[in-house]
Amino acid sequence: SLDHLQHHRLLILPNHQSTADVPLLMTIFSSRVGFCNKVMWIMDSVFKFTNFGFCSWMHDDFFILAVSY
Prior knowledge:
Low-confidence stretches: none
Shape: globular
Helix content: 25-40%
């Protein structure tokens, strides 16, 4: 239960399967008291230049430069 982990550091790495994953996780975290202001999203820097990226930048989420070789 997430309610028992509210005062601990927690890293959740979901296996991203569809576009429904992010809204589902946002719904889960925002429905719990005390979680919404502690969630940080980590995403590719390409999203920084979208509407979603602007909101993420304002929320202080973390952008990475994903490089494939």
